[in-house]
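Teaching assistant's notes for section 4

Start the section by putting this record on the projector. Ask students to predict, before seeing the second block, whether RNA polymerase sigma factor will look compact or extended. Collect guesses on the board.
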Amino acid sequence: MKPKQYEQFLQCQPKLYRFAYSLVKHVGDAEDIFQDTLVKIWELKEEWDKWTNFEAYTMRMIRNNFLNFEKRKKSKLYVGLEDVVEVPEPNEVEQGIITDDLRYKFKLLTRKLPEIQKNILFLREIEELEYKEIAEILDLTDAQVKMYLFRARQYLKSKVHGKR
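Reveal the predicted structure now:
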């Protein structure tokens, strides 16, 4: 492992956490997915130099861990803490990720979007990833990413301007 690769590993961590949180919308679950992914990334550190796009590869690992998490959740009787007791999310975890106001507005506007459009919109507009990187992370073509993003933007535009 080279110092540059280690620096990449450190720099991508906030983005990985934000992506995990955007998928599950729950601090505890996002932290679990994030930490499991960091362990897997670290275990593969000898292969980092083979990865052509470190960030896209690690984001895809977050997505895959999320999908595994969802499968486990569906296969078992899953009761999250929020189902038992309503606990407000701590602000210190969310500070620096997205302001509460912006996150609230984003949730309001995107709640009716299909999940794939929400994810692409988040990765493009919030994380500022390129179309190619998003396509790699979500296992789509560039054209599919552009189409989903276009549809999501059209939907948001109609909501902002009050049209149905």
